[in-house]
């Protein structure tokens, strides 16, 4: 018997902010870009459940979130607290939770900073898995003063959908024999890989629920969606063979920043680049990793996005290297080399990739710089 547990932290960023700042207790909270009184740029990273009641959602333009907050304020409701975000703190809390959860099953796979899968097949029953889910939830409350939702099912897909069934602070178990009844009434958007575009296409074909998707033949879905159609056919029947990948590790650590006004002024960008380098390096050091590649992202005023990268001769983990390499990659976007039309930049991003183990890196460093360590 295969049993998978999915852990999903509730409104994670906003919940950490509320925990760490008692003055925010009971207020609607939005973590994201500066709203600048409705003129801000960028998007919402996370909104807590009180803010979601105002219609504010993740990935929503921050200006729209501000408008909704002001509408709520005029209606006599509590005003939204907008927070810039403490991403290094979120990473720290995530690591502490995951370090605990990883010890509780046969295989552990983080899916993001606030979600993870745990294979608990060796427990042998859904009753035992449910008990473990309760223990994990209790531990998170006791040690982190946060809540999470847990879904348990026969595969990763079902467990993930189940985790969202009763948020916040929920625990939902979907046994093998209940899978189809659980899936059928839900929107096709609940299935992995079906985004807004696929949903529109399916709706045009008269398919809105998973039950309606299940009524279609494999040939029909492949005809309209190609290879993706075969995946739809399997998922509508609750079939997912994806294993919990115990070898998973973070492939990159990055940050991005949206400017209040599009710019080509390097003096505005360099302090931002420096701050991002410090945050990224701090996270890399905590994970005891060294990076080989630095990636820079530029998004222009017309929303076109370009990335450039450079692989180092020697792995590094310090902010100075990140900043220097990021600056080298940034400068061509300020002139005709990468920006012949002299378009202003709306957003810049910096990322560290291709991690190597610390021990191997130290040996390389020692060979080049005796006495450094």
Question: Brief description of this entry?
Answer:
The protein has 373 residues and is of the alpha+beta class. It folds into four domains: 4-11 and 87-175, Reverse transcriptase/Diguanylate cyclase domain (Alpha-Beta Plaits), CATH 3.30.70.270; 14-83, 3-Layer(aba) Sandwich (MutS, DNA mismatch repair protein, domain I), CATH 3.40.1170; 184-235, 5' to 3' exonuclease, C-terminal subdomain (DNA polymerase, domain 1), CATH 1.10.150; 252-368, Dna Ligase, domain 1. The protein has helices spanning 12-20, 49-52, 62-74, 87-101, 126-144, 156-163, 179-183, 196-204, 210-214, 218-225, 227-235, 266-286, 319-330, 358-368; strands at 4-9, 29-32, 44-47, 81-83, 107-112, 115-119, 148-153, 171-173, 252-263, 289-300, 305-316, 345-357.
Task: Note down, in words, how this protein is organized.
This protein has 373 residues and is α+β, with helices and mostly antiparallel strands. The chain folds into four domains: 97 residues, 2-Layer Sandwich (Alpha-Beta Plaits), CATH 3.30.70; 70 residues, MutS, DNA mismatch repair protein, domain I; 52 residues, 5' to 3' exonuclease, C-terminal subdomain (DNA polymerase, domain 1, Orthogonal Bundle), CATH 1.10.150; 117 residues, DNA polymerase, Y-family, little finger domain (Dna Ligase, domain 1, 2-Layer Sandwich). The protein is built from 14 helices and twelve strands. Strands 5-6-1-7-8 form a five-stranded mixed β-sheet. A four-stranded antiparallel β-sheet has the order 9-12-10-11, covered by helices on one side. A three-stranded mixed β-sheet has the order 3-2-4. Helix 10 packs across helix 11 and helix 12 runs antiparallel to helix 13. The longest helix has 21 residues. The chain is globular, with a radius of gyration of 23 Å.
């Amino acid at each position: 018997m295969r049993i998978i547990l999915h852990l999903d932290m509730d409104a994670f960023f906003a919940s950490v902010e509320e925990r760490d700042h008692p003055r925010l207790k009971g207020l609607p909270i939005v973590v994201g870009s500066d709203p600048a009184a409705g003129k801000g740029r960028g998007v919402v990273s996370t909104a807590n459940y009180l803010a979601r009641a105002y219609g504010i959602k993740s990935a929503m333009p921050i200006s729209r979130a501000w408008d909704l907050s002001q509408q709520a304020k005029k209606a006599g409701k509590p005003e939204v607290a907008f927070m810039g975000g403490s991403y290094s703190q979120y990473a720290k809390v995530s690591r502490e939770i995951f370090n605990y959860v990883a010890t509780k099953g046969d295989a552990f796979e983080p899916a993001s900073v606030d979600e993870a899968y745990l294979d608990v097949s060796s427990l042998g029953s859904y009753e035992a898995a449910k008990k473990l889910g309760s223990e994990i939830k209790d531990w998170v409350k006791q040690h982190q003063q946060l809540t999470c939702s847990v879904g348990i099912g026969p595969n990763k897909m079902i467990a993930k959908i189940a985790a969202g069934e009763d948020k916040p602070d929920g625990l939902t178990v979907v046994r093998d024999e209940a899978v189809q009844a659980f899936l059928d009434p839900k929107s096709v958007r609940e299935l992995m890989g079906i985004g807004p575009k696929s949903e529109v296409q399916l709706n045009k074909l008269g398919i809105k629920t998973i039950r309606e998707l299940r009524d279609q033949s494999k040939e029909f879905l492949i005809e309209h969606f190609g290879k993706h159609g075969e995946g739809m056919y399997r998922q509508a029947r609750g079939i997912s063979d994806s294993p919990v990948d115990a070898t998973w590790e973070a492939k990159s650590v990055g940050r991005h920043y949206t400017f209040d006004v599009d710019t080509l002024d390097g003096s505005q960008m360099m302090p931002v680049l420096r701050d991002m380098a410090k945050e990224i390096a701090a996270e890399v050091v905590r994970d005891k990793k060294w990076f080989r590649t630095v990636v820079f992202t530029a998004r222009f005023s017309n929303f076109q996005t370009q990335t450039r990268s450079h692989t180092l001769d020697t792995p590094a983990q310090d902010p100075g290297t990140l900043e220097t390499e990021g600056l080298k990659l940034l400068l061509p976007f300020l002139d005709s080399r990468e920006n012949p039309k002299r378009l202003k930049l709306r957003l810049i991003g910096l990322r560290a990739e291709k991690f190597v183990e610390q021990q191997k890196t130290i040996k390389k460093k020692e060979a080049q710089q005796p006495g450094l360590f």
